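Good day; I would like, with your permission, to put a structural problem before you. What I wish to show you is a protein chain and, alongside it, a tokenised description of its three-dimensional fold. Thank you for your consideration; the sequence and its tokens are set out here:
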Amino acid sequence: MRTKEREADASQEAFRRAIILREEGRFDEAEALLRDAVSRDAGNADLHNARGVMFAAMGRHLDALWCYRDAAACNPADPTIWTNLGNALTCLKHLRTAIGCHRRALSLARDDNALLHHNLGNALAEASDHSEALVALSRALEIEPSRHGARWDRARSYLYLGNYRQGFLDYEARTVTGQLPARELAGQAWDGRCYAGKRLVLVAEQGFGDVIWAARYLSRVKALGGELIVECPAELIPLLDALGVADRFIVRGASLPEGDFHCYFCSLPGLFTKDSSSIPNAPFVTAPVDRVRRFHELINRAPSRLKVGIVWSGSVTFKRNQERAQSLLKFFQAFAVPGVQLFSLQKGPPEQELRALPRGGPIFDLSPFIGDFADTAAALQHLDLIIMTDSAVAHLAGSMGKPVWLLLGHVAHWLWLLDRTDSPWYPSMRLFRPRGEGDWDHVFDAASAALMNVVENPVLV
């Protein structure tokens, strides 16, 4: 009896210490501690489960899966274990099984638990079942109204379904979930009313593409009031300055001036767009004339060919970029067809893939001549078509009204809605979608066949 008590005490101590290490972000140490504890107390479900949590925190979801399964074998009646197992399966894209685990967790729970409904909603959303996801996420919020993460997740499901009125209302949850950096912002939050004689500061957020997407509202914002100060990534300032709307730009990250009102960039759609019929029409961006001239000779060296720009990756720092990006080799195989001159608009580390292609191949690298998005816009001005995976250049091309073919993965951004081949946000855009998870070959084959048709009949672009 004493031996069992000592083992139980040791397991409890290991569990307690692991929690402290986790709070300090020392996941490797916590997992090692729990691994040792499990070797001495293999029937302890809590230890297996906690070890899975550590693996999940490290992004090692397959290892977490095995720990959760061992935990469930030890204690099959614990709803926390089943929902953790469901979370691991969601990350591994075993979505139907994940949904089943979350439903089992709910059936085992003694009380209606907001976390369990939230986790189920996320799995349903990942499986593109957004109607059911809304049911689960709404239930989570009924139980726990302050669960802001569930409100943010519900926003995306509403937006996927094209319910902009409710979706953008929930989208504001990002300001309290920690997704936006904590900052001291001047004045009151702006609600879209007239601010004549006062100063409004627009605050940058999220990525380049998000800023370009929301820039369609700048002229409308300026028309409602007095001084408009726009915080913006430096790479976008020359492009947005050419719109002639803002009174002053502040480089993102610099100190913001005093103001009467402030508003985040991506809050603008929620103020002005309640349904797809109220989306401001593109194009709303033009390339600066002096930049356009610089690219004329570069791009028009192949006047007899269809000029096609390509981008195969977004920012490598974006955590889900690997789900959107594809290799340059796939673009080369699909689009280096007779009658086409390819131009690479790719920036960042993925540019290195160009070096692995055959010398003298049909891709002209424009990246050495592109310093910011105004340069990219100038290059786009001379191209007949842009084919790319989801990144900021797609928003830029769409905002200019240039023909752009967007190659999408199975779970695309909410902006592209569900099952559509067009976009109400960018009328010049065509969407190519897979038939299922990981079906990129179908996407490239469909776009390649479409490109060959355009070569034969350019008016189809």
